[in-house]
Amino acid sequence: MATPLAYQPSPAAPDWLNKGDNAWQLIAATLVGLQSVPGLVILYGSIVKKKWAVNSAFMALYAFAATLIFWVLVGYRMAFGDKLLPFWGKGAPALGQKYLVRRAKIPETVHFYSNGTEETHMTEPFYPMATLVYFEFMFAAITIVLLAGSVLGRMNIKAWMAFVPLWLLFSYTVGAFSLWGGGFLYHWGVIDYSGGYVIHLSSGIAGFTAAYWVGPRLKTDRERFSPNNILLMLAGAGLLWMGWSGFNGGAPYAANKTASVAVLNTNVCAATSLLMWTCLDVAFFGKPSVIGAVQGMMTGLVCITPGAGLVQTWAAILMGVLSGSIPWFTMMILHKKSALLQKVDDTLAVFHTHAVAGLLGGLLTGLLAEPALCRLVLPVPNTKGTAYGGGAVQLGKQLVGALFVIGWNLVATTAILLAIGKFTPLRMPDEQLMIGDDAAHGEEAYALWGDGERYDATRHAPVFLADDAMQAMQSSGGARGVTIQL
């Protein structure tokens, strides 16, 4: 039987190209992109005080755009290219067509036996390199956008503009290469299925560190920072949740059964965590909180990420229960009792929702990773969680991997911010902080009546009014009390 024309090789569709995998990977990447733009742009712009809506949204938008340019210039190959150091790849552009249209591969992911013979072949998805570069960019971008949540409401925008590319190149690429690109943690067998460590633990620790060096918001803002639009915040949160199917569903680099398990587990864990957080709010505060529900959704999504395609669905429920309770405890109870946590002004509690939840997910993956699922995607054979006879070995590896990510982000983020601080202040001056968006950008989020604009009858009066009525309105300073003779 002849091969259907649509499936015959051609210059644009060589025999190694799987059109289904390529289509899914591009869709998954775009879903992850929608988490940042517009998802987190909307969420940040609405969850903050009105005077910081424009600044907060713009910090996310800028980070997304700047990350893409530096990613293709040098960042991608620092994270997924040839090895320079055990934790870092050789930087080079990903711009030429010869590089981008060939079959994708991650060269350092080939895994060897101790005697030097090949044990696991390198990762070579069935689509072009351009697809992989695009997909991995989305993960890099959302990491920095999440980090921004720690410094909203006071960071100097010029300092942020310098920070984004520097942190991408000197912090993110190290974690990505070490755990995903064929670095020492990858080959040692540390599990990070889709970014619990590379993305969430790193953004939480880096965000907390940045919040320390940038300094706090104004005292009035710290005491009262109510969202300016909770319904719009929910729209951003919804985009974040739905986009996570691409986040974890795209991690196997193929439209396979691991992707299906990961998508289901992701949604189950998020729903469980949201319900758990809400129940705790009701039990301790007497009423459910919408903001709390969003926090619970977030911690569930973060917690399942390092093991989404590697654990059974009953384990995803267990992880959801823990991710909806342990970060709740650290945020609502421990935070109020810790002098350090009180001192550092982490605006959106990224430390709790991402660092704590990401670490929790990584350790739970070491406990609950199912051997048959691990064999489908992991490079190191016989990887399995403690609950399946793996002993304490895998948990130990997960802990060491977490400590490396924590340590590197503490040092790298500190060094970057101290260097930037030599050239421009990290924090806006207090007089700008009193004003907010108008001082930082010359723009405001909402043109609502009564925000300071004086009623000008020559600009706002209907065009059909007679001249004498117009004069009467001008002399009275407005329309109130004026009788118009038609």
TrEMBL record:
Which residue ranges does the record assign to the Ammonium transporter AmtB-like domain? Answer: 23-446
Q: What is its main location?
A: membrane
The protein's matches in PANTHER family, at most eight in alphabetical order, are given as: AMMONIUM TRANSPORTER 2, AMMONIUM TRANSPORTER MEP2
Q: How does it sit in the membrane?
A: Multi-pass membrane protein
What are the alphabetically sorted keywords of the record?
A: Ammonia transport, Membrane, Transmembrane, Transmembrane helix, Transport
* GO MF term (any one): ammonium channel activity
* Protein name as catalogued: Ammonium transporter
Entry-linked Gene3D superfamilies: Ammonium transporter AmtB like domains
UniProt family annotation: Belongs to the ammonia transporter channel (TC 1.A.11.2) family.
Function in brief: Involved in ammonium transport.
Pfam families of this UniProt entry?
Ammonium_transp
Q: Name one GO cellular component term.
A: plasma membrane
Cited InterPro entries: Ammonium/urea_transptr, Ammonium_transpt, Ammonium_transpt_CS, NH4_transpt_AmtB-like_dom
Localized where?
Answer: Cell membrane; Membrane
Its transmembrane ranges are 23-45, 57-79, 132-152, 164-185, 197-215, 227-247, 259-278, 290-308, 314-334, 355-378, 398-420
